[in-house]
UniProtKB/TrEMBL annotation:
EC number: 1.5.1.2
Keywords, alphabetical: Amino-acid biosynthesis, Cytoplasm, NADP, Oxidoreductase, Proline biosynthesis
Family: Belongs to the pyrroline-5-carboxylate reductase family.
Organism (species): Pallidibacillus pasinlerensis
Main location (coarse class): cytoplasm
UniProt protein name: Pyrroline-5-carboxylate reductase
Gene: proC
Length: 277
């Protein structure tokens, strides 16, 4: 099976590299392109056997499973341009949240789905969020699910939870790396610990915590219980965090991302209305 990847920005590149490194598909079965072709050629420098195509039409023609990794407002014109090539035996996959599978299906005749990857997939870990189109064949559901299992854990989600699930899975690494950096900065300012050492310790702590959870030793609540001795140092720190309104901060984060999501959806809907879809 040949895989097409249209758009080699951050996520398109991560997806390409994860697919190859996981051996989900051999290099020679991967066809990529980008508006700025030099970005695609940078990937080829590391994976010389992949195919860099000059046009999106060439990617679609040479591939059965096509990942669309472009900005939300660029998807509609791209699909209109290539709809005659996206025949019933192919599968079109969008990785952007505001463009719904129903909108994909209104333009092309092939099986459609949305797959929202995460930067964690680069380590062949984490989650891939999957939403299937109404007309997506069982053949492609099984095939894509098996394919994604090489780079992460595919989890099916309903349309209504697209944004919040994406916030947790896809945006989450950025949110928690930001919090970790603030955690490190505070340690340096308050105690004078060397920043490189504090960073190393924090990174190792995150890896260790993730391993504990992955291996099923502890859940998030039991982690707190095991570390937090009543009246001890950790307990005092938890009291500060519990009184810091941090939950309200995260609720504000989700509120803002939901609003941005709605704005993006409105712009995409306007495209469909403008072109009579």
């Amino acid at each position: 099976m040949h895989i097409g990847i249209i758009g080699t920005g951050n996520m398109g590149t991560i997806l390409t590299e994860a697919i190859i490194d996981s051996q989900a598909a051999p290099q020679e079965h991967i066809h990529i392109t980008n508006r700025t072709i030099e970005k695609a050629l940078q990937i080829k420098a590391n994976y010389p056997n992949i195919h860099v195509e000059e046009t999106v039409e060439e990617v679609v023609s040479n591939s059965e499973m096509i990942f669309i990794c472009v900005k939300p407002m660029d998807i509609y014109p791209l699909l209109i341009k290539t709809s005659h090539l996206l025949k019933k035996d192919k599968c079109t996959i969008s990785i952007t949240s505001p463009f719904s599978v129903e909108q994909l299906e209104s333009i092309v005749q092939c099986s459609c789905m949305r797959v929202i990857p995460s930067i964690t997939n680069r380590a062949l870990s984490g989650v891939c969020l999957v939403t299937y189109g109404t007309n997506c064949s069982d053949h492609w559901k099984q095939k894509v699910n098996s394919f994604l299992s090489y780079i992460g854990n595919p989890i099916e989600i309903e349309q209504q939870y697209t944004r919040v699930a994406s916030d947790i899975v896809s945006c989450g690494p950025a949110f928690f790396s930001f919090l970790t950096q603030k955690f490190i900065d505070a340690a340096v300012k308050e105690t004078g610990i060397n920043k490189d050492l504090a960073t190393q310790l924090a990174q190792e702590m995150l890896v260790g915590m993730g391993t504990l959870i992955k291996k099923g030793h502890y859940s998030l609540p039991t982690l707190q219980e095991k570390v937090c001795v009543k009246g001890g140092v950790t307990g005092k720190g938890i009291e500060v965090l519990d009184n810091s309104q941090i939950e309200d901060t995260f609720r504000t984060v989700f509120n803002v991302t939901q609003r941005k999501f709605a704005e993006d959806q409105k712009m995409i809907n306007n495209q469909f209305n403008f072109f009579g879809k």
